[in-house]
UniProtKB/TrEMBL annotation:
It comes from Agrilactobacillus yilanensis. SUPFAM superfamilies: P-loop containing nucleoside triphosphate hydrolases, post-AAA+ oligomerization domain-like. InterPro entries: AAA+_ATPase, AAA_assoc_2, AAA_ATPase_RarA/MGS1/WRNIP1, ATPase_AAA_core, DNA_pol3_clamp-load_cplx_C, MgsA_C, P-loop_NTPase. Keywords: ATP-binding, Nucleotide-binding. Belongs to the AAA ATPase family. RarA/MGS1/WRNIP1 subfamily. The keyword Membrane does not apply. Transmembrane segments: none annotated. Residues 38-150 form the AAA+ ATPase domain. The lineage of its organism: Bacteria, Bacillati, Bacillota, Bacilli, Lactobacillales. It holds the Pfam family MgsA_C. This is Replication-associated recombination protein A.
Length: 424
């Protein structure tokens, strides 16, 4: 049985990886490891289908080390022992361990000494947050890299490559992929390249060629059917997806409940549950934020409920959240504050941390004056004491500009201004 297109098109070198350029692009961390042949064990985490296995495969192909793939939930300790024996014989083995968050203690204890010795280079793959779901013992011996959903342009590049690749792809078929269909595969899969490739392969293998030209034409209706997702419109550039997301956020920001529900309905009808939930979380904290923090928390709960329910029932808690966010007071003071602070840091306006705030938990810190004059607020009345926290060159800086659009931020404003006055 032939392996799926997504499997066959996995990259064999670091240069052929699609996306994840913040890690594998020239000069970036994983690229440097491969170039220097100084690999360390790592954990790659992010949504499904965005390249975790591809990166592991490409690292192995670029370094010429033996490559083995196991699943932490399914494969046994004995199978890990086989990999370890191979590593002893050949020198180094790259082990891709999928679902590493499900690694039990017995397998973990077996692996640890092999990671220490460097005989096994572990590349763990997970969709779960490793800082929460992976044991400290494994985390301490690995570098953790977060992967990002692929951009539509990255997916288009990979699909075009698959259509022309005669060895592993679909290059031995005569295929015409319309711009509308290409845009739909690229945008409707939410950055999941595996889904896009497998949808394309199904379309090619299940569509009869034209009797005269012998060409298989994949148009938008076929793309919709093979992905089981409807397109927003026949937009050749694939902008409609982003237009709907933009209109959705701007309608909530503008407090138009009916418009927001309309654009939500478009997303639901197109099966864009992941995009809808992610955008709703962004909106809650970006546009409502300090004005109604309980609404933000309730939005998180609505998203969690939607994830458990799936469509079509997921529309119910999400609709409740959309209505509440529309009718809630608005404030962007949180995002404005952190962006102002980031601007200072990114432009070199950081300054020296006051000595009394520096770490004092090591021998010799006191001799350096670190932490010596720190005053512990809980030792004072009201759990507050006046002391300087910002660096000297920024001690008068104010990043947070509170608003008064909701009762919560009104109260925060009074407290913030009171404390700011005392600290000054």
């Amino acid at each position: 049985m032939q392996k799926p297109l997504a499997y066959r098109m996995r990259p064999t070198s670091i240069e052929t990886i699609v996306g994840q350029q913040h890690l594998v692009g020239p000069g970036k961390i994983i690229y440097r490891m491969v170039q220097a042949k100084m690999l360390s064990s790592m954990i790659l985490y992010g949504p499904p289908g965005i390249g975790k296995t591809s990166i592991a495969s490409a690292i192995a192909g670029s370094t010429k080390y033996a490559f083995r793939a196991l699943n932490a939930a399914v494969n046994t300790k004995k199978e890990l022992q086989i990999v370890a024996e191979e590593a002893k014989m050949s020198g180094t083995v790259i082990l891709l361990l999928d679902e590493i968050h499900r690694l039990d203690k017995t397998k973990q204890d077996f692996l640890l000494p092999h990671l220490e010795s460097g005989r096994i280079i572990l590349i763990g793959a997970t969709t779960e947050n490793p800082y929460i779901n992976i044991s400290p013992a494994i985390r301490s011996r690995t570098q953790i890299f977060e992967l990002e959903p692929l951009a539509a342009a990255d997916i288009k590049t990979a699909l075009k490559r698959a259509l022309t690749d005669k060895e592993n792809g679909l290059g031995h078929y005569s295929v015409t992929l319309t711009p509308q269909a290409l845009a739909h595969y690229a945008s409707a899969t939410n950055g999941d390249l595996r889904s896009a490739l497998n949808g394309l392969e199904l379309a090619v293998l299940s569509t009869a060629p034209d009797p005269k030209t012998k060409t298989i034409t994949i148009d938008l209706p076929i793309a919709e059917e093979t992905l089981q997702k409807k397109a927003f419109s026949h937009d050749a550039d694939g902008d409609a997806h982003y237009d709907v997301i933009s209109a959705f956020q701007k309608s909530i920001r503008g407090s138009d409940t009916d418009a927001a529900l309309h654009y939500m309905a478009r997303l639901v009808e197109a099966g864009e549950l992941v995009s809808l939930m992610r955008r709703l979380l962004v909106i809650a904290y970006e546009d409502i934020g300090m004005a109604n923090l309980p609404a933000c928390a309730r939005t998180v709960n609505a998203v969690l409920a939607a994830e458990k329910l799936g469509l079509p029932e997921a529309r119910i808690p999400l609709a409740d959240a959309v209505i509440e966010l529309c009718l809630s007071p608005k404030s962007n003071s949180g995002i404005s504050a952190i962006d102002a602070a980031l601007t200072d840091v990114q432009t070199g306006h950081s300054g020296e941390i006051p000595k009394n705030l520096k770490d004092a938990h090591y021998k010799g810190a006191e001799a350096l004056g670190r932490g010596v004059d720190y005053q512990y607020p809980h030792n004072f009345k009201g759990d507050f004491v006046v002391q300087q926290y910002l660096p000297n060159n920024l001690k008068k800086k104010q990043y947070y500009e509170p608003k008064t659009n909701g009762k919560y931020e009104q109260a925060f404003k009074i407290q913030y201004e009171k404390l700011k006055k005392l600290l000054k």
